[in-house]
Amino acid sequence: RNGLPAKKEEDWKYTSLWVLSQQEFTHQAQPNKLSEAQIQQLALNKNAFRIVLVDGLYSSQLSQVDDLPDGVNIVPLSQGLELAQPHLGKQLDLSTAGFNALNTLLMNEGIVVTVASDVEITTPIELLVINSGQTNNLATHLRNIVVLGSNSHATLVEHYVSVTDASSLTDVVTEVVLAPDAKLNHYKLQQESDNTFHIATISAKQAAKSQWNNHSISLGGKLARNNIHTQLLGEHSHVKMDGVYIINGEQHVDHHTRIDHSVANTSSDELYKGVLDDTSHAVFNGKVIVHKDAQKTDANQQNNNLLLSRGCEIDTKPEMEIYADDVKCGHGSTVGQLNEDNLFFLRARGLDEDSARNLLTYAFAAEVLERIENSELRQAFATVIEQRLPKGHA
């Protein structure tokens, strides 16, 4: 009824969905022939518990969810509706135009993760979503539910990848519920093809003393939109919201983040960095809201961008709404190019220009990677970013 959002809406001012609206998609996937060897090659952590979705369908043969610890459930949505039902749709506003209503109507698969109270699962959980390319113009609508009991710890990786350059749409919603003292390290890597439309919402509710470490690594697609929102509903809850986007060609990536400090004594730390090349376009809109009763809030937000060509563009809008008077808040944004003095320094020591530019570009993005706790995942993400780095040019 409400259709797709238009650029006249403030949240979509810099992102046009016209090209997406002209595209026709199918929801019927053709058979694929992915092997276990290919899955191991695509997976970020070889030893993780893993749910594999290929072209929107759960593959029990390619998944790895045996020998789970007591109190841990990891199942596809199609088999875990009873676990998901109490939390399904509780964090979405379906009254506004957008993809949440579309996802609610058409969701056909996803992952459900529940961790009981006082359970710490040290092995990462990976949701590996693969577009095999066997079905052109395939649309998949995925819903993920993640619920951690009190004093529980877990690590979740959402990994979206394309095998070919086939056109596709990925529409995904992830709902996170953290009980008191729960801690979730939550990583998302989006590395789909240049012909993919990726629309995603991640929404969390945090109780007292909970921690949500959210890291988003976006390598574009034709158009990628990430809406990330958390509500700090209990005292001494904390969110770390980090992101890196590296895009080139005509890619477009849009991050809209929102942190609601709803009660006193909560904290947030947000750092997003972007690397743009060619005629790519990025959007960052980060909103922090400190509500009336949220005294003693400590919030910091930063967005830094590196432009490697004259044709790329960034629209950055960090913002804070503060309705309490006893707070510590700061935010900022920077846009710049590679430092010519640093480039000269490296070239004077024997590096060619491309290598020097790559090294400086990686150093710019590495600050976000250094904030990742899991060393194995940190190295895996670093390898992905190194392979993706543009050479840059004057």
Estimated radius of gyration: 20 Å
Mean pLDDT: 93
Number of helices: 7
Largest sheet: 10 strands, mixed
Helix content: 10-25%
Shape: globular
Strand order, sheet with most strands: 2-1-5-7-9-11-13-15-17-19
Derived from helix and strand composition plus strand pairing, the structural class reads alpha/beta
Low-confidence stretches: none
Beta-strand level of the residues, as a percent range?
35-45%
Q: In sequence order, what are the helices and strands, one letter per element?
A: HHEEEHHEEEEEEEEEEEEEEEEHHH
Helices, strands, pairings?
Layout: H1 18-21, H2 36-42, E1 49-54, E2 57-58, E3 72-76, H3 81-84, H4 99-106, E4 111-115, E5 125-131, E6 138-148, E7 153-162, E8 168-178, E9 183-191, E10 196-206, E11 211-218, E12 223-232, E13 238-247, E14 252-261, E15 267-276, E16 281-290, E17 298-307, E18 313-322, E19 328-336, H5 340-348, H6 353-369, H7 375-388
Parallel strand pairs: 1-5, 4-6, 5-7, 6-8, 7-9, 8-10, 9-11, 10-12, 11-13, 12-14, 13-15, 14-16, 15-17, 16-18, 17-19
Antiparallel strand pairs: 1-2, 3-4
Helix pairs in contact: 5-6, 6-7
